Amino acid sequence: MQVLFDSLPSSAEIRDFLNLTSTWWQAAILAVGMLLAKLIGSRLQGYLQTLIQTGMKEGIGRTALRTAMLALVPLLLWLWLIAALAILHRRGGVTTLLYPAMILAGALAAIRMGVFALRHSFSPGSKLKAWEGVLTITIWTLVALHILDWLPYVEQMLDEYAFTFGKVRISLYNVISFVLSIALMLLVALLAFEGSIRPGDVISFGNTFGTVKALHTRHVVIHTRDGQDVLVPNENLMTSDITNWSYEGDRRIRLRLTLQIAYDDDVEQMILRLERSARANKQVLADPAPAVLVTGFGDNGVNLELLVWIEDPEHSGDVRSELYRQIAKDFKAAGINLPFPQREVYLKAAPAAISPAAAKSNNRAESARDRKPKPKATSPD
User: Fold this and answer.
1) How many domains are there within the chain?
2) Do 138 and 262 lie in a common domain?
3) Per-residue pLDDT tens digits for 150-194
4) Of residues 234 and 28, more confidently modeled
5) What CATH number is given to the structural domain containing 306?
6) Cα–Cα distance between 272 and 336 in angstroms, integer?
7) 183-221, pLDDT tens digit by residue?
8) Are residues 208 and 275 in the same domain?
9) Cα–Cα distance between 21 and 94 in angstroms, integer?
10) In terms of Cα–Cα distance, which of 201, 323, 194 is closest to 254?
C-alpha cells in the first residue's frame, strides 16, 4: 500500500499542476471533446440505427456497421484528441493530460468494438449481451492501469491484504484473480453454447442422439432414447460437428424412407398410395405435405423415397417404424408384393450321347494312332 502511495504525486505536485494555465487548457479541450463526441455520436447512432433496420441485410457489412456504431462516442473523442494534440505539438504546447487521455479513448473504442464483434460472432442476440458492458469496462480498466503504469502497484497493494493457513498464504490479489478466471471460463462456456444448445434441444453428434438435459461448466448431460444420461465434456462438443434438430425452437425435421416397387406396378398409383399412408399418420405434418420422389431404377425394381415432416425429433425412430408398418399393411391388403433379389438360371442343351461301342472303337483308333511303328530288323551281311 505504501509503495502505491509513494508512486502517486504529492499534494504539492498536484497543487503546482493545477496552478498551470496549460492544465486548464487541456482540461477544457478534453471537456469540449467529450461534449461534442456525445452530441454528434448520439445523432449519428440514431441515423445508423435507422439505416441498419431498414436498408441492410444480415451480413458482414451490417455487423461491421453495428460494431462501429457502438464505439462511436469514444472513437469521435479519440479523433478530436488526435487533432488537438497535432495542433498543440505544432505550437509547442503542453500535452501531459491530453496524450494519455487520447490513448485511453482509443483503447476504449478498440475494446468496445472487439468485445461486440467477438460476442456477435459466437452467439448473436443471446443473453451474453447483458455481460458485454461489464466485460468491456473490466478489460479497459486493466488496460488503463497498464498504460498509466499503475498495474504493478495495484497488484502489490492487493497482495498485501492476505491471511495464512499454515504454509498456505491467500491474498486479496489471489482471490480476485481466481474470481476473474472463473468468470472468464463461464463466459467462454456460455460464447460456445448460448443460443446454439439449450436444455430441451434434441442434438446428435457421432453415435450419440438425445435430448439436452442440463448444461454445466465442464460437461453437458444428454438423455438418450435408451434412457441413459450421457455426460459429454464441453471440449468434445466444441471440436465436433453437432446437429441441433430443434435449433431456435424449430423442432420440425424431415424423414426419408426408401423402398422399392416392382417394375410391373403403376408408379403413379404407388406414389398416391404412399402419400395417403403418410397422411394417415398423426405424427406427420400436413404442411409441408408428404411427397414421394422417384430416385432411380434398381436391379430389382423402381427406387422411391417418401419424404415426411414431423415436429418431434426424439420420436423420429418410432414414426419411421410406424410408417413402414403402415405401408407394409396397406400393400398386403392390396395384394402388392415388394420386389426382392431374384436370379434366373438358363441351362443349355447337353451334347448328344455316344454309344459304348463307338466310344470303344474311337479309343482303339486313338490308341493305334498314338502307337509308333517298330523299326524293321536288318539281316547281317
Assistant:
1) 3
2) no
3) 888 888 888 888 888 888 888 888 888 888 887 777 666 666 555
4) 28
5) 3.30.70.100
6) 14
7) 777 666 666 555 567 778 888 888 888 888 887 767 888
8) no
9) 10
10) 323
Q: Is the CB of residue 283 less than 8 Å from the CB of residue 339?
A: no
Asked if residue 222 lies in contact with residue 203, where contact means CB atoms within 8 angstroms, the answer is yes
Bridge partners, residue 203, by sequence: 210, 244
Residue carrying C-alpha cell 431404377: 297
Cα of 350 vs its chain's centroid, Å: 69
C-alpha 35/C-alpha 345 separation (Å) is 96
Amino acid at residue number 83 = A
Do strands 168-171 and 243-244 pair parallel, antiparallel, or not at all (unpaired)?
unpaired
**Do 115 and 6 reside in the same domain of the chain?**
yes
User: In angstroms, rounded to a whole number, what is the distance separating the alpha carbons of residues 82 and 98?
Assistant: 9
List all residues 6 or more positions away from 304 whose beta carbon is below 8 Å from its beta carbon: 258, 259, 260, 261, 270, 271, 274, 292, 293, 294, 295
As a whole number, mean pLDDT of residues 332-356 equals: 76
End-to-end CA distance of the chain: 146
Instruction: Give residue 302's domain range.
Output: 253-333
DSSP 240: S
Instruction: Tell me what the pLDDT averaged over the chain comes to.
Output: 80
**Would you state the cell numbers that stand for residue 77, as one nine-digit string?**
473523442
pTM: 0.47
